[in-house]
Design a protein that fits this description.
Elements (H helix, E strand, L loop, with lengths): L3 E10 L3 H13 L4 E4 L52 H16 L5 E4 L2 E6 L4 E6 L5 E12 L16 E2 L4 E4 L12 E5 L3 H12 L7 E4 L4 E5 L10 H17 L3 H10 L3 E2 L9 E7 L1 H7 L4 E3 L4 E4 L3 E4 L2 E4 L4 E5 L14 E2 L2 E2 L9 H14 L4 H7 L9 H19 L4 H6 L5 H7 L6 H33 L1
Parallel strand pairs: 1-2, 1-6, 2-3, 6-20, 7-15, 8-18, 9-10, 9-18, 10-14, 11-13
Antiparallel strand pairs: 4-5, 5-6, 11-12, 15-16, 16-17, 19-20
Helix pairs in contact: 1-7, 4-5, 4-12, 9-12
Length: 477
């Protein structure tokens, strides 16, 4: 059967958070025709596969697409996020993206949406092929402007993740998606994974009333965490949000080594860690509230023997030793890495756009800004890439240096570009910029925080460059 021939200006592969944010800005700022292809039956990407008790890790106020608010503007009055702005649930996020598609994108008459489809091939000349998973119909697309690969970061969640260790027959093993469906009382719980997913599993078990002594937490590495109080979107938290950035720059500028930098960042309140006696070696940018931190500290059975190699009905074999288990113990897989730390590629390459992080911690703002740069500077690829330097995803403490330096260099480039500051201030996904824009010049205490941040920015960049040179020199040696 011959493929159905289609034509569009932009073909966006993926309707997850990145693809939706990109399409929304393109729809607002151009008259382009847009085609969106995704393997899921609804927009939302990995949120379709997430565990039922998942929430955003940062306030909903600056998540989603630029044109439509996700947050209800309320603070949580109960729970471990009490006093901070709401964290939308996975169900809320999925419903939001479905609404954006049905009530904004499709009614525009400029967006064609192909769910339950897989891309088979894309060429640099602007052609692509995809097919329907359900009926096998094949499509061939001629793309007049750009193909946008919004799947590049390959978000992974436990339910779609294959563990990189062996699980023997007779082991009770599950992703944390399955935890709410338990119908018998297990001997105990073993949570495998020290990242944000592992944190979520532990917190859910504790919130459900599980005795912390019945939880064993296997952590191959400890991680530095961010205080969620420092991510709040209103002037009420100005001292926390902008104050944390000022403290970050000052801590970096004053440090005489990378270890000293992390010590200073922790002392300033920028970083947190679950166990203050264990030096973290991992940084993925996860956020946590002070109450969540105290809950996690109730778990005393923490195993630090490296990565899991094998799980049998009676023992768990790790890099550095073995611990006992039982057939009746529930082993919870939280070992998936949410975002793959792939080697960065240029965001703009001919007829291909590959959205990546261009601001630290903020994938949807990054996608929206990349789309704006495409709309505003579509004929100047060098200019586009100069404004969209990739912020490489961090894994280790050394990666934090490169990650932070790249983000600061982008922020400087944006500040020098006429009109871009104004666009950012008007974009609801730019939480910090919007907060500073709303500041009264007469508010001297807050203006002093801004002054501190700006004064320390250049010395911080210089210090990060020194650390990068040392890191690269050691690698070369």
């Amino acid at each position: 059967m011959a493929a159905t021939q289609l034509e569009t200006d932009y073909l966006i592969l993926g309707t997850g958070a990145v693809g939706m944010a990109f399409a929304d800005t393109l729809l607002s700022e151009t008259d382009a025709r847009i085609m969106m292809v995704d393997r899921h039956h609804k927009p939302g990407g990995h949120w379709n596969d997430a565990y039922p008790f998942v929430t955003l890790h940062q306030p909903a106020a600056f998540y989603g697409v630029s044109s439509r608010e996700l947050s209800n503007g309320l603070k949580d009055e109960v729970g471990l996020n009490k006093g901070l702005y709401d964290l939308s649930s996975g169900a809320d996020v999925l419903a939001y993206y479905d609404e954006v598609m049905r009530h904004r994108f499709l009614p525009s008459g400029r967006v064609d949406y192909f769910p339950m489809c897989l891309c088979d091939h894309q060429d640099t000349d602007g052609t692509a092929r995809f097919h329907s998973i359900l009926n096998g119909t094949e499509y061939e697309v001629t793309v007049t402007k750009k193909i946008v690969d919004a799947t590049f970061l390959k978000t992974s969640v436990p339910s779609t993740h294959t563990p990189n260790f062996t699980i023997d027959d007779g082991v009770t093993f599950m992703p944390l998606n399955t935890l709410p469906r338990l119908d018998t009382t297990p001997d105990g719980f073993v949570v495998i994974g020290g990242g944000k997913t592992g944190i979520d599993a532990c917190l859910w078990l504790l919130e459900m009333g599980t005795d912390p002594d019945r939880i064993t937490w296997i952590k191959s590495r400890d991680g530095w965490l961010l205080d969620r109080t420092n991510t709040q979107p209103t002037l009420e938290f100005f001292e926390n949000t902008v104050g944390a950035q000022a403290a970050q720059f000052e801590s970096i500028a004053a440090a005489d080594s990378i270890d000293d930098m992390f010590d200073r960042l922790e002392a300033s309140g920028y970083f947190l860690r679950v166990d203050t006696t264990v030096r973290p070696t991992m940084f993925h940018g996860a956020t946590i509230s002070s109450m969540e931190l105290e809950e996690l500290r109730r778990i005393k059975n923490v195993v630090r023997l490296g990565r899991v190699q094998k799980v049998t009905p009676t023992e768990i074999i790790l890099d550095g030793g073995t611990i006992p288990t039982t057939p009746g113990t529930v082993h919870v897989d939280c070992s998936a890495t949410a975002l793959q730390a792939l080697p960065p590629v240029p965001v703009f390459q001919g007829k291909l756009i590959t959205p990546q992080f261009i601001r630290s911690y903020q994938p949807v703002f990054s996608a929206a800004l990349i789309a704006h740069v495409e709309a505003a500077y579509g004929n100047d690829e060098d200019k586009q890439n100069a404004l969209c330097g990739v912020v490489p995803l961090p894994d280790t403490c050394e990666d934090f240096v490169r990650f932070t330096h790249a983000a600061m260099m982008n922020q400087y480039a944006w500040s020098q570009e006429p009109g871009l500051d104004e666009w950012m201030r008007g974009n609801r996904l730019d939480a910090v910029g919007g907060t500073i824009a709303g500041l009264s010049p007469d508010d001297q205490p807050k203006m002093e925080i801004v002054r501190r941040m700006r004064t320390a920015a250049v010395p911080a960049v210089v210090k990060l460059q020194e650390f990068l040179a040392a890191i690269d020199g050691e690698k070369a040696a």
